């Protein structure tokens, strides 16, 4: 008994186009055990195994080395709601202030002593929480909040992060603020400093 | 050590078909900053900008004019959980009783004075909430509840809606009930009126 | 090393108040096997059992009888994402056009032959889908869409509904539109009929 | 004013690939009335109707017969958050201990008397809840918990399940534990029995 | 037939404590039309109405004025998934670079001409998107990404924001990075500038 | 203009009771930076720090030792969507076949060589995936699927689990199936073995 006008047909085509549009997006609930491999061949055990952390080349310098184990590098995670990362901190290095826009992080110290900091969004003055972490300690950085780590020791520190998203994302604040050529008037007014200070902050970014 | 029978292979193909099936659907969490454009070219700033509200042709008459800014008309919204609409009410016009099946609405009055109504689902007698809104007032219409507006003034009223979904949908009740040729027996029994009243209600719908 | 001003303390109290505020709401993911009983006594098997459908008194007349098995009548469902209802249709009765604002429904015919209708949101003219269901048939009414049933047979029909929410809600359209004293100007303009027709539609509602 | 390096372009291609990757997954919120049919032709009422439960061939024996009405067998359910199943229990048959990894189940007895059991995750000793269900009774099996049914009567029992997912999945424990050739050392240590008992348990699985 | 040991009872009490613990949190699906008022009195229409934007005192200076309409200032929004804000920009003022950790924003220009900027998370060099917005234009700032606005005109600019969360939160970057006394070694290494520049950036924050 | 009957008032009280009912449940989206401590005192850095993994007493024997870092033992995780666990495997020990009803697990080997197994839900014959993991390897156990580990080496193995839920739960299969006194008829029919084998399996459980 269903009736449809020609108009409805064209409306339907519009809906179908919308379906195609909205097909890309997601950290949804699974409706299968796991997403099949991209080649649609039956998976074997290696599909569930990540072995690229066995031999990590550590780049010396003042920045922490991060190896992401997320849905991009490890596709089986698609739709499963969790990701990881290995962090190696050379002596004296920092993991610069940053946020993860799509996930909470727990950081577990594998080796060494690490200083961490987290800033909440209390208004008008945010609150800084800092802690010294020892081997086997865990610290929580809730979703979207600014945080950082620094290795003030003489030894390499290693830590392992767990995230509540398969692709938590990374907003690196020094580069995002001073490495993309934001209008200097925005920056001088926002940071309330002179343009030569903004210029110095920007000069060191790539 | 993983082993699979031929049977498992065919089962797997079934799962893969399911994957294709389930690809269309969603207002899910993002796992990227934003969904890329349909042409997969790198986006520029215009991808994030909606300019079609600059010059709205207002159609006079007894119905409000609605321009939707949702995932269909503004694809960058895909997966981002919010949409908008501009509403222009000629003097004496109504926005007929309707629901949005997939989202809550907040309505902000840009210009003029507007009467609004909302009906909840209290049983057995629902409750009507009505209000007169002035410029800069906001009223909330929770997801799925029947609501309407009327401009009882002599001036054009303009308002701007925000939704909790990228595609909240619209169930226009006069047309849905009386414009699709529902079996008159259903309508006379449901509305408890004679068939000639149902016929009159139906005659004016397209 | 964490420091906080007195200001932060008062801001914190505000957050705590917010916590209390936001405590009520939800069809969320479980973080336990099930929500404990309201009396916090350990549950026994009867906590998981609903027996009130054994002897349903059927009220004759022109309307279907509905018994809800949702989180209000069966609290163990809290947080579990599913609810049910038993529907009994005397001969000639209707389940009036309505929506469920918070859930999709599947309707399973237990006994008899039932006519069902569903209207989508295609614009500008919605599409009506109608079907005759026989014993053991299932029909789907997606979330928020208008639907109805009518028993055109001489026999009692029984059906069992499943919902995708623990409390899908009910917007009964005859009563919501014509039983709550909406401003007649809104209704005459919206339904494009004279005020005496609106008066007749309203007179029969409680 | 937006600027992009060639590097950004290649990064973008990577994001686009990710989009394709993540397209398959989901029990997400709808952004449409319903997912269109796979052939993208306008749907008619049969798209919303499931008629395959009309004539179920019951296979006699010691196991319950299950017919799933989920997103695989009834694609309109895609994105709608609910599924069903019909269960027919020959006299003396069991529905073996199992879990549904992706959904809560409510079980409604259509005909006969059924014994059910549910085990929670209390530590260190889980709790068993058992119940005798009569016609029209409902029992809840929360997501992921082990449960079973047995028909101890001389008559066929029929029941109808509702799930909070469009594809709740099934982990059949006898077959999963003893039918896939798990290393016997794992099983003897886990179940704390001798290898000949494990061998007997495994011998009867396909 | 259910049996429980004393041990299970104490385990149950632990679960009940967990229930209390987890009661605070949420932007969940509603299971009611709307959350009742905190005083649990039946709501009236004013419960759904926000009138505090009628007369906004604008504070002159170099920063935008923001009035939030979120679940804290407008409790009816609890569980409804949307919030708003009114922004007034004196001539020459900025809305400093910031993120919203819990929601996407669409910004609608009510009056005047506004420059906006958005930075994504492309690696290793993020991409800046900038745009000049005119009256009635909308720009999208996806969840968690850094963005800012500046009024380069001689006139007051007004804009209205919509968010995909009832409490999107605010990470103000100048204050978060330089106003909470982060260890200067972290900041000099992260921003790769001398400690006197960090000192100047910090000196101007409260 | 809102009007309410006395009936509506009592209906409202019912809704308020429902609000209280539904307050306990959840792994929802946050609407704050983090849930405040149970004592509602402003948190300090120790609120975000878990130090109980520093000195784990390992109990020798044939079972793995598990220390959970979830919302019960570490309340700051409430609403943040992630949890962890430390696993220590004495030589020859197993982590018995089990499921996590509410979360996916990634397992990272900290020290030693570990055999793991995962069984999917392919029908009619599930598929077993097994793997030998070395230090720094990660394996994924998707939500709700049966999995196990065994340390076949002569050395202690240590591993660290990440979960996609703040309280993933644990269904230990030997104890759930054979330690709660399930009706032997259910077990003999389900596992298709004689009652003396079921008796032996049950005798060793507490």
Helix vs. strand class of chain A: alpha+beta
Return the average pLDDT of chain A rounded to an integer: 87
Assembly type: homohexamer
- Give unreliable regions of chain A as ranges: 1-29
Helix run count of chain A:
4
Q: What is the makeup of the main sheet of chain A? A: 5 strands, antiparallel
Task: Report the count of strand segments of chain A.
Answer: 11
Described by the principal axes of the CA atoms, the overall outline of chain A is: globular
Biggest interface found = A-E, 57 and 57 residues
Question: What helical percentage do the residues of chain A reach?
Answer: 10-25%
SSE order of chain A, one letter for each helix or strand: HEEEEEEEEEEEHHH
Number of domains of chain A: 2
CATH domain fold name of the largest domain in chain A? Jelly Rolls
State the CATH class of the largest domain in chain A: Mainly Beta
Query: Kindly, what is the distance between the CA atoms of the first and last residues of chain A, rounded to a whole number of angstroms?
Result: 66 Å
Range of strand content of chain A: 25-35%
**Rg of chain A, nearest Å:** 22 Å
User: At the fourth CATH level, what is the homologous superfamily of the largest domain in chain A?
Assistant: Jelly Rolls
The strands making up the biggest β-sheet of chain A line up spatially as 2-3-10-5-8
